[in-house]
Amino acid sequence: MKVAFATDDGVRVNAHFGQCSMFAIYNITKSSSELVELRRIPDISTQDEFGKIDSRIEAIADCTLIFLMQIGASAAAKVTRRKIMPVKVQFGSPIDDQVKRLVDMLQGKPPMWLAKVLRAEEEEGAGIHGSNG
C-alpha cells in the first residue's frame, strides 16, 4: 500500500496537512518498505484554503494512509471521503520509525483501524467494491 507522510524536510512528520511543503510517499508491504518519491506541493499563493486542501488531496490520491501532525475537520472529512485514512502522530516523529511500526503491524495482528483499511483496499483491488453479489 502507498502511504503519505506530511513533511517539510522529508525525514520527519513535522507538518500540518494544509501547510506542508511536501509528502514523502512510501510503498509498504508486510515484508518491505521503500521511499517512492517526495511529492512537493507547489506554492500557489492565490489559492484559497479549499484550493490548498484539494491540491494536497490530489497529491496523495493514490495513498491509503496519510501520517500527519494535524488536520482540520473539513480537510479530514474530504480525505476520508477519498478513502484515505489520516493518522495523527507526534510532531517531529521520524518517518523511518513510523514506517517500521507500520511494517511491524502488518506482520503481526494489525489493529482494528488498520485491518479495516486493508480490507477496503483488498476489496477495491479485487473489484468487489460496488458489486451486487
UniProtKB/TrEMBL annotation:
One of its GO terms (molecular function) is metal cluster binding. It comes from the Bacteria. The keyword Mitochondrion does not apply. InterPro entries: Di-Nase_FeMo-co_biosynth (IPR003731), DiNase_FeMo-co_biosyn_sf (IPR036105), NifX (IPR013480), NifX-like (IPR034169), NifX/NifY_domain (IPR051840). Keywords: Nitrogen fixation. Coiled coil: none annotated. CDD domains: NifX. One of its GO terms (biological process) is nitrogen fixation. SUPFAM superfamilies: Nitrogenase accessory factor-like. Residues 10-102 form the Dinitrogenase iron-molybdenum cofactor biosynthesis domain. Pfam families: Nitro_FeMo-Co. Belongs to the NifX/NifY family. This is Nitrogen fixation protein NifX. The lineage of its organism: Bacteria, Bacillati, Bacillota, Bacilli, Bacillales. The gene is nifX.
